[in-house]
Amino acid sequence: MAKNTGVNNRIPVKWVRDKAKSAYDKKDFCFICNTNEDLELHHTYSITTLLNNWANENSYDISTDDGILAVRDEFIEQHRREIYDCVYTLCNKHHVMLHAVYGKKPEKHTADKQVRWIEKQKAKTSGVMIPREKVLGSFFSEFT
Fold it and tell me: CA 22 to CA 17: how far, in whole Å?
């Protein structure tokens, strides 16, 4: 039987999110446009990808409820930064736009790019210009 297809099994990441969500710092407005409607939490690191990679690296079987529950706290502790700090509250419109650019489960190496995209969208919405160095980051500093 394929992983996560059993009748009583939940998708493993849902167990992680259920445990972690009480400590999320979800704001009451979109970081980009300040609306307070249709808000969602965006992780710049895909929790699903982090969890699956971590389980594979540690040879943990998370294909059953018991399997994920046995290691969930360890995963959360080892990935506190990605779970709690690398997040943005976005409205559905901006969240969908971000995922249209970076995909449903953005790759780990795109986390910094997502942050820059979010910052650029915020600046566009507020009419504030972003310094070129901030947009280009270390690339810019190598040539100046």
Answer: 9
Summarize pLDDT for 67-102 with one digit per residue, the tens.
999 999 999 999 999 999 999 999 999 999 999 999
CA 23, 43, 90, 115 torsion-angle sign: positive
End-to-end Cα distance, the chain: 57
Tokens of 49: 């990808």
Is there a contact between 67 and 30 (Cβ–Cβ < 8 Å)? no
Where does residue 27 fall: left (phi above 0), alpha (psi -120 to 50 degrees), or beta otherwise? beta
Tokens of 82: 């990605």
Kindly state the helix (H) or strand (E) to which residue 41 belongs, with its residue range: strand 39-43
Q: Where are the domains of the chain?
A: 12-142
**CB neighbour list of residue 60: distance below 8 Å, 6 or more residues apart:** 54, 67, 70, 71
